[in-house]
Amino acid sequence: MSGSLWTVDATGMVVIANALVASIVLIVLGRFLAHGALTSGTPEGRQVVGEFATDFFLRKSRDMAHGYDRGAVVRTVTPFLGTFFFFILTCNLFVLIPLPVVNRPPTSYFSVTLALAVSAVVGNLILSARFNGPAGAAKHLFWPNPMQWVSEFTDVLSLSLRLFGNIGGEYMTLVLVAAVVPVGIPLILHVLGLIPTFVQAFVFTLLTASFLAGSMHRNERAKKARHPWFSRKQAESA
Amino acid sequence: MNTVLMALVAVVPIAAGALAAAFAMKRISVTALDGMTRQPEIAPQLFTAMLIGMALVEALAIYTLVVTLVLAGKIVVP
């Protein structure tokens, strides 16, 4: 293996190149699926595949839109979550390509997973500022627990280390085993490694979605508005 | 530092992490299998929940792996 996992040196250009290849693959796939006239009636052809791909993220963002302007929330949060999932999935699947330089998945570099985790957490902050206002974002950082902002840093670390450890560890194991037994056993490792590939992309997106849902808490206020503390007569009309 | 001592110390985090993660995953999978046996019709949902639980526990083992990698990188062969 050339280059170290913990530093970015000249071979760090491989990181950027592989991540760019993953992005280009995703953009081309997206344009292919969204090509042509899209109908809101019965979909057919490519639209079925596109809707299947985005359905999960649409439902998640619809669930967290209670009490907010639903169109704005869904239009912003769905691509946010969907991009994380498909980008991480595409990056992880690079390990299956038999070419020498493209072989290394971008998510097996700590720099890439750290960047993804920082984007997720900073994106959560920006989205909660957009929907709750700047005061809402400050309240999210300090309210139930004044050290809540520290847990943002631990969220960054846990998201990035989880993804890096799974995919980077899988790649390291593959390289070490293939140096000893070039044929046969790496195939088993590739097949077994498909499971963390999908699960880690899903878990990253799920955790980002639950952090975001935790910061959009206006639905609780709508329920509490009807139960004042000290007046019984008003409570009965709720 | 003494190379032998560093090498011995570097092994401890990953061993403890893997052991603890194994016990936690045992508990998770046994509970999930019991539930799938009781109610086979909700088996896919139980499987999804089990996978998510295992991924989160595995993350803890991976944090110890990171510590081990850092320590193993500091072993200097004289």
Describe the structure concisely for a colleague.
Chain A is mainly α and 238 residues long. Chain A has helices spanning 12-33, 46-63, 70-93, 110-142, 148-180, 185-215, 218-224, 232-236. With 78 residues, chain B is an all-alpha fold.
Question: Secondary-structure map with pairings?
Answer:
The complex is a heterodimer of chains A (238) and B (78).
Chain A: H1 12-33, H2 46-63, H3 70-93, H4 110-142, H5 148-180, H6 185-215, H7 218-224, H8 232-236
Helix pairs in contact in A: 1-3, 2-3, 3-4, 3-6, 4-5, 4-6, 5-6
Chain B: H1 3-38, H2 43-73
Helix pairs in contact in B: 1-2
Mean pLDDT over all positions of chain A: 85
Helix content of chain A: over 70%
Uncertain runs of chain A: none
Q: How would you classify the helix and strand content of chain A by structural class?
A: mainly alpha
- What's the Cα radius of gyration of chain A? 22 Å
The count of DSSP E runs of length 2 or more, i.e. the number of strands of chain A, is: 0
User: Helicity of chain B, in percent?
Assistant: over 70%
Look at the helices and sheets of chain B and give the structural class.
mainly alpha
Relevant terms:
heterodimer, A: 238 residues, mainly alpha, 73% helix, B: 78 residues, F1FO ATP Synthase, 86% helix, rod-shaped
Describe the protein in words:
The complex is a heterodimer of chains A (238) and B (78). Chain A is mainly alpha-helical and 238 residues long. Chain A is built from 8 helices and no strands. The radius of gyration of chain A is 22 Å and the shape is globular. Chain B has one domain: F1FO ATP Synthase (Up-down Bundle). Chain B is rod-shaped. The termini of chain B are close together. The A-B interface holds A 5-6, 158, 161-162, 164-166, 169, 196, 199-200, 202-203, 206 and B 51-52, 54-56, 58-59, 62-63, 65-66, 69, 73.
